[in-house]
Amino acid sequence: MTTTTTVSNTVFIVDDDEAVRDSLRWLLEANGYRVKAYSGAEEFLNTYDADQVAVLIADVRMPGMSGLELQEELLARNAPLPIVFITGHGDVPMAVSTIKKGAVDFLEKPFNESDLRSIVARMLEQAKEDAAKLQEQKSQQAILSRLTSREQQVLERIVAGRLNKQIAGDLNISIKTVEAHRANIMEKLEVTTVADLMKIALFRSEGVV
To answer: Which CDD domains does the UniProt record give (predicted)?
Structure first.
């Protein structure tokens, strides 16, 4: 089973302006954060590990890949990385667009340092929550992968509320065979009640894993 690597209190900074990077680094490190700064989006993507629990502060306008293009790339990678954009050229429609795509906030230069500290703290909490949810999904996926294809067929029908007799008819097998499959499913998924079984199966039926 895949294990999420936790890098606590890490903040990534991607900005082509060295003075801004240095200023942000000083501010965040003074508040106990671990900071990794990059001069461009491509440089950041070359080293980024999606298993890291961290947050990203990114400039919108940069040579090469822009901050918005970086956000699109992270979305394409299903990277659970909260983002706050900083820019000297922002406008309301752009802010709304980035936030709808998952950015936590949008700050125009010069920004208030206390506001940024507050946002980063909130972003890290979100990052930790997202990482915990992702790990739970991976755990459920690993558990469900223990089932044979026939057991998965039986599980689908249990979740749909079908009775053993109906499942037997659906799959053209005996009721005793359904009962055996049901017992195997409960054992493999390490549950003792149908309610617990439903909780695990819900991940599969909703396409979460």
So the answer is: LuxR_C_like (cd06170), REC_FixJ (cd17537)
Residue 11 host element (H or E): strand 10-14
Alpha helices per DSSP H over 49-193: 67-76, 92-100, 113-144, 149-159, 164-171, 175-188
DSSP secondary structure letters along 33-60: -EEEEESSHHHHHHH--TTS-EEEEEES
Tokens of 183: 């017992």
Q: Please tell me the distance from the alpha carbon of residue 204 to that of residue 209, in angstroms, as a whole number.
A: 6
Confidence class for position 98, pLDDT limits 50, 70, 90: confident
Predicted TM-score (pTM) of the model is 0.64
Predicted pLDDT at 9: 76
Looking at domain 147-203, its CATH class is mainly alpha
Closest CA to 206 of 144, 164, 147, 119: 144
Beta-strand pair 34-38/83-87: unpaired
- Which residue type is seen at 72? E
4: phi then psi, degrees, rounded to nearest 5: -75, 130
Nearest to 119 by CA among 183, 20, 28: 28
Q: Does domain 10-139 have CATH number 3.30.300.30?
A: no
Residue whose C-alpha is closest to residue 57's, from 132, 4, 113, 97: 113
Give residue-wise pLDDT tens across range 113-133.
888 888 898 888 888 887 777
